[in-house]
Amino acid sequence: MSRKSPSTVEELRLALEELGLNSSGSKDKLRRRYRFREQRLEQKKKQEQWNLYSLENQAKIHLRYLLIVDVEATCEEGCGFTFDNEIIEFPCLLYDLDTNEIIDEFHSYVRPNMNPILSDYCKSLTGIQQSVIDEASPFQQVLENLTEFLRQHKAILEPSIDEVKILEPSRAIPRSQPKNWAWACDGPWDMASFIAKQFKFSNTQIPDWIKGHFVDIRAYFSDVYHVPRVNIEGMLQRWNLRFEGNQHSGIDDSRNIARIINRMSMEGVIFECNRWWLKHEINGWIPGRKYPPFLSKRQK
Question: What subcellular compartments does it reside in (predicted)?
């Protein structure tokens, strides 16, 4: 139960004395002095939380787990990122950077709401047939299933997804308490575009555990090896590896991203978050990264 604010002169003087402050003066002066103290205490509390969630503290906890995601979404031939994509496949691989292996997988198809009939182009690109989508669960149910999947690993994910809190300053990148896990995907689009759009179209509140910082593997690969950004197949070519499975299959793309992470880890690469997102069209880079951004002539 919250403490009642002092209102009488006597109560104000007693409260100020308890705080070690001057208790003399008129009632108006006592009230202003007390309110100022309350404001300072609130500012101090916010600053302590901000310091706890500072970017410097992120480096003090070992990033051990990556949640690799590569969603597929509704599309039409020639459509760009302004298209109203809805997710139709949602994989999530739990990857252990210490043992360098996938330790669990989540995979689900998703039935879109606005455009439940897939275009011929979308079916050809993703290999997902209409009959699969017709029997799939809506996004809200898939999100609940993903939540339960991650809760099953609360013993190793620190903090657990239910404990994650994001601070959203108006003029700075978002911050959260240090975590030993992060999302990872090929480029920014899965998190900052497709998933962000899906929450917008579903009119669903974005949970703190899915937004915030993440690892853009495509950009990370470019920064580490000082090469232009290329797709999954292009990154695999560094080790003369071929893409396994079907390209634009969410689960196959995710497993091949895991292969890239595996090879990078074997070469001593240390992963950290390089991007962030909060909602659709609100995202950006994290400065001061371990591997400075590489800018090719094409990117300058």
Answer: Cytoplasm
CATH number where 278 lies: 3.30.420.10
Count of structural domains, the chain: 2
Rounded distance between C-alpha atoms, residue 58 and residue 175, angstroms: 9
pTM of the model: 0.82
Checking if the pLDDT of 4 tops 80, the result is no
Assess whether 248 carries a catalytic annotation. Answer: yes
What domain range is 19 assigned to? 9-52
pLDDT of residue 1: 42
Which residue has 């002095």 as its token pair? 33
The size of the chain, in residues, is 300
User: Among 105, 103, 101, which Cα is nearest to 93's?
Assistant: 105
Cα-Cα-Cα-Cα dihedral of 98, 159, 110, 219, to 10°? -50
**Residue 244 CA to its chain's centroid (Å):** 27
**Both tokens assigned to 220:** 């990370």
The phi-psi region of residue 146 (left if phi > 0; otherwise alpha if psi is between -120 and 50; otherwise beta) is: alpha
CA distance 139 to 159: 25
Catalytic residue, chosen from 72, 86, 89, 213, is: 72
- Token couple for 62: 């070992």
Q: Are residues 219 and 149 part of one domain?
A: yes
Selecting among 163, 248, 272, 280, the annotated active-site residue is 248
DSSP 3-state of 205: coil
72 has catalytic annotation: yes
Q: Are 285 and 275 contacting, i.e. CB atoms less than 8 angstroms apart?
A: yes
Q: Tokens 């029997």 appear where?
A: 135
